[in-house]
Amino acid sequence: MTKKVLVVDDEPSIVTLLKFNLEQAGFEVATAYDGNEGYAAALKEKLDFIILDLMLPGMDGMDICRQLRQEKVNTPILMLTAKSDEFDKILGLELGADDYITKPFSTREVVARVKAILRRAKTEAGRDVKSEEIRIGQLRILPEQFEAHFKGEKLELTPKEFELLLYLANHAGKVLSRDQLLNAVWNFDFAGDTRIVDVHISHLREKIEEDSKQPQYIKTVRGFGYKMEGI
To answer: Which residue among 35, 60, 88, 103 sits deepest, i.e. has the most Cβ atoms within 10 Å of its Cβ?
Structure first.
């Protein structure tokens, strides 16, 4: 089935370039040129992926990302930004974006990232992943259904949050470095920017911990990384 991608950017040349290259790669492409139009399209259309510019007239990319996640729309989002400010990149990830790329960019890299994120959202988060149900304490993970439940309630997770949770669960009891998690789940060269891992760990803790300040499931191993406790 053809995957549908929404491209939201106020620069017509960028939209045209991305649309052409994504269609050449086999995607169906919808477009929007301002934030309000993009937000409406993201809610209305059945999408597999969203490419979202940070700076937009109307709603900006941050607002769109925040609102979509609050509306429980977990479609993967690749954020485009002309800024090199690390704060903007990390804030975008904190609001629920799955990845970011800085302008100017290679369209080939954008297409490659879209394919990789979609592929990894539907495949195993690690080579030794088990396909059967995983239970850890009150946490229940269904790898083949790409679902996770806590205390009987289905968790609303972005693709990256699910991949990270699944990888941690499949390595429960083992200490995993931030670099290991970055390479296993994101599979991109973020130049060692392991803050991306910390942001997503924080998101998961808010969803599965009684007290995110004193986590019982995902423990911090000071100076190294994280460990999923086999409660």
So the answer is: 35
User: Beta strands of the chain (E only): which ranges?
Assistant: 4-8, 28-32, 49-53, 77-81, 99-102, 134-136, 139-142, 147-150, 153-154, 175-177, 218-221, 225-228
- Which residue from 112, 59, 105 is spatially nearest to 81, judged by alpha carbons? 105
Give residue-wise pLDDT tens across range 144-185.
788 899 999 999 888 788 989 999 999 999 999 988 888 888
pTM metric for this prediction: 0.64
Task: Kindly tell me the burial class for residue 181, based on how many C-beta atoms sit within 10 Å of its own C-beta (0-12, 13-18, 19 or more).
Answer: buried
